Every structure is written in C-alpha cells, then in structure tokens.
Amino acid sequence: MQEKIAIYWWAFDPPHLVHEKIVKYILDNNYADKVIIAPSWEREDKKYKVNSIHRKNILDIFMKSLIGYNVEFCDYFMTAWVEDNLTAWVDRYFIHKLWFSPIQVFGTDALASIKEWDAKKRAALIIPKIFIYRWWFDPSNYDLNWIENYTIIDMDLWKDLANLSSTQIRNGWIYHFLNSEIADYIKKNWLYK
Questions:
Q1: Within 10 A of 169 (CB to CB), how many other CB atoms are there?
Q2: How many structural domains is the chain composed of?
Q3: pLDDT tens for residues 2-55?
Q4: Which long-range contacts (CB under 8 A, 24 or more apart) does 96-101 make?
C-alpha cells in the first residue's frame, strides 16, 4: 500500500508550538504516515525578517522537537522561486520525487483565496489536501462543493493556540508559544526586533 505523505510547506518564520502540534496531530491521528516539512521561499507576499542561515538554524532546532515522529526536512523550497501557482509547483516537485501527489497542508483561510490562485483547479480538484481549521475562517460559511479530495481537521484540544500565527510572534515577542530552544536562539541572536 502507498505511504500517505503530507507536505507541510508553510513559512515557519519562526516555527512555533502550533506547527509542532499540527505535525504530531496529523501523524498521531493517521491522517498521514509521514510529514515532510518544506519551508517556503521568500516571495512578494512573504518577506522574511531573518537571513537564511538563522532561519535554517531555527528550523534545525524545530526538527529536533519532532524526534520520534516520522518527519523529514526538505530545504529545497527555501531558495526556490516560481512565478506560477505555488501549490501546483510544490505538487509537481514531489510527484517527480515520490511518483505520486502527496497531501498538502493548508489553513482553512486558504479557502477564501483558492479560486484566485488556482485558476486551473488543480489544487481544488486533484491535489489531496488537509485544511487545518482556523477559528477566524469557518469553512461552514462557504460553499465547498467545488472542492474535492480534502479533509478539514479541527484540533479543538488547543483552541487557545489556534489563534496564534508566526506573524504575531515576530511582531509581539510571544516567547511562551515557542519551543524554549528556539526562543533562546532568537533572544541570543537578537532576531525579530
């Protein structure tokens, strides 16, 4: 039987406890057999506040927090750049590498813009997807009949953390939502100030 692999390719700028909980939840609840962490590249809509060396060091610490889980790190997308649909491009890369289309992990807020960036409907209809429920974007308020091959995961065990994003950490220094080693690294190197 084919292994279920999920590609978790968010920014991870910086990776925090919600990212860690999402990976563990996906694996512990058999939504996937393996998760590949594939941090995204800098682009027009996503500018990083730390250089690639610090970003890689922080991600190395993050990966240590996932020891014991079937998780792999892919740094290819940290330097890659494309002009077309990012989701389709990530899918093509992993089809070439794995010989099948892996599950891609999104937040439910991606449902608001998917029609804009997925004109060919590859992400909507073909690519297997997991949408992580985000409290500020309730998918039940939207017509999802045009989307196929997806699962929405509501990890209500940690609603307080579901409000968290890396942007809030970058802007507000919310260290208690970071792995302590990552928080120490950020403080020691004066990052995100």
A1: 23
A2: 1
A3: 899 999 988 888 898 889 999 999 999 999 999 999 988 776 767 778 888 999
A4: 98/5, 100/2, 101/126, 101/127, 101/128
Domain span holding position 113: 5-188
d(CA 92, CA 19): 24
Asked whether residue 193 is domain-assigned, the answer is no
- The pair of structure tokens assigned to 149 is 């091959």
Shortest CA distance to 98 belongs to which of 163, 33, 43? 33
Residue 67 lies in a domain: yes
CATH number of the domain enclosing 39: 3.40.50.620
Q: Is 94 helix (H, G, I), strand (E, B) or coil?
A: helix
Q: How is the beta sheet containing 71-73 ordered, strand by strand?
A: 71-73, 34-37, 5-8, 103-107, 129-132, 150-153
Q: Residue 166 to residues 11, 96, 104: CA-CA distances in angstroms? A: 8, 30, 19
pTM for this entry? 0.87
Residues 26, 32: Cα–Cα separation, whole Å: 6
**Residues in the chain, overall count:** 193
